[in-house]
Amino acid sequence: MGLGLLVGYFVVFLIVRLVVRNVNYWLYEIKLGEKRYELPPGDMGLPLIGNMWSFLRAFKSTNPESFVQHLLHRTRYKRAGSGVAVYTRRTVYGNPSIIVTSPEACRKVLTDDDAFQPGWPVSTLDLMGRKSFANIFGNDHKWQRKLTASPVNGSEALSLYMKYIEENVVAALHRWAAMGRIEFLTELRRLTFKIIMHIFLSSEGDHVREALEKDYTLLNYGVRAMAINVPGFAYYHALKARKSLVAVLQRAVTRRRAQRRENPSCPKKDMMDNLLEAADEKGRRLDDEEIIDILVMYLNAGHESSGHTTMWAAVFLQQNPHMFEKAKAEQEETVRNRPAGQKGLTLKEIRKMDYLNKVIDETLRVVTFSLTVFREAKKDVNVCGYMIPKGWKALVWFRSVHYDPEGFHTESGNFMPFGSGSRLCPGNDLAKLEIAIFLHYFLLNYELERENPASPVMYLPHTRPKDNCLGRIRRVS
């Protein structure tokens, strides 16, 4: 092969590479005109794929922070307020996106409803439902939030569920101690799923709960996956799981509607009854699809975050014996100070557990269950000196806020484990209550013995040990 031919191949390679690397620039940036110079630095990645390979590679490694950290070395960055702010343009889940990581920028994106609306990936919308909280906004969002948030928030609502949670926590710990070897995370997810089922579908029975429970793991693996509907891909299996979930829930909704037609005066027992009876100021009622999408999302969110956080709180306490003993001493003091004749915990007692609540908050910070949320700019928006163009996605990168050693402290407004603004997780108080009740009884009477303390950690779809925290729950005197 002659030198001239080699040079020719090399030139062709460089041209092809240049074209491929600039496709996204031509698709998304050049149309912005002069405004493109207001974009943050960054790399839009390859056509179609964008930056998804580097995203997935980082979160399947031992250092998920590398997806954002390497930007400090490759791009310019600004210091905004208390922390290093990295703003970068990327193509994530097939969309031109700006990743925001400073507390100021994150709060702006989360709280400015005039400038931003939900912007979740196709996979999330398809699996959670097009009429779920993930996609609706405006008056529909306000109405559905009011319907579903008030029954799980506030002292009266939380006190209503405390006895049920307590009874199931005590029974579960007793049962696990007798079972021997268990997957601690798997059992916790079953426990928290039973609790959220009681709140939303209490009268449907264990057969419905078991039918739903088995499909939620598959559903979760697809929520943060690329929307590739081909056998072998997570999204494909998650769609099949959603179909099963929808079928079970549709039967439950149909059955419940028939019961209420036959007996209109029957008392409301759970959230589904509230949803079936609800009407807005114009008399509009929720249709079956809306109710099912609400249930799919709430049943999922209502057990995954509390189950994972509870596991990590127990693991972290077990790894730090001095903290375990301090937290246990607080629980023992709570019991000692209890009035004679009182059985079980009260909401007032839980709110006075200063150290345990700090343990829970620190676990929420370290784990950062939701690694990011997706918003879409409704107009061109300036955020901390950079422009997010209309139609582009804004990814709120919680991990950078929570892991900033210089700027983080819980009282500063930099603590966002449940989001912020009008879309703050409506079940945050319930989740923290569940975790506190579990840890109270765990600290008093049990300890966790992990079989594989060095088990690798997986970060997608949520942070967990690869072995689901295999081990034993041992009762202590």
List the topology elements.
Elements: H1 3-29, H2 52-59, H3 66-69, H4 71-74, E1 78-80, E2 83-85, E3 88-92, E4 95-100, H5 103-111, E5 116-118, H6 122-128, H7 138-149, H8 154-179, E6 181-183, H9 184-201, H10 206-223, H11 234-262, H12 271-277, H13 288-319, H14 321-336, H15 347-351, H16 354-367, E7 372-377, E8 381-383, E9 386-388, E10 393-397, H17 398-402, H18 428-445, E11 446-450, E12 457-458, E13 464-465, E14 470-475
Parallel strand pairs: 4-10
Antiparallel strand pairs: 1-2, 3-4, 5-7, 6-14, 7-10, 8-9, 11-14, 12-13
Helix pairs in contact: 6-11, 8-9, 8-18, 9-13, 10-11, 11-13, 13-16, 13-18, 14-18
Care to describe what's here?
This is Gibberellin biosynthesis-related protein KAO2. With 477 residues, the chain is an alpha+beta fold. It has one domain: Cytochrome p450 (Orthogonal Bundle). It has helices spanning 3-29, 52-59, 66-69, 71-74, 103-111, 122-128, 138-149, 154-179, 184-201, 206-223, 234-262, 271-277, 288-319, 321-336, 347-351, 354-367, 398-402, 428-445, and strands spanning 78-80, 83-85, 88-92, 95-100, 116-118, 181-183, 372-377, 381-383, 386-388, 393-397, 446-450, 457-458, 464-465, 470-475. The chain has a 5-stranded mixed beta sheet. The chain has a 3-stranded antiparallel beta sheet with strand order 6-14-11. A two-stranded antiparallel sheet has the order 1-2. A hairpin with a 2-residue loop joins strand 1 (78-80) and strand 2. Helix 8 (154-179) packs across helix 18 (428-445) and helix 11 (234-262) crosses helix 13. The longest helix is centred in the middle third of the chain and has 32 residues, at 288-319. It is globular and about 90 Å long.
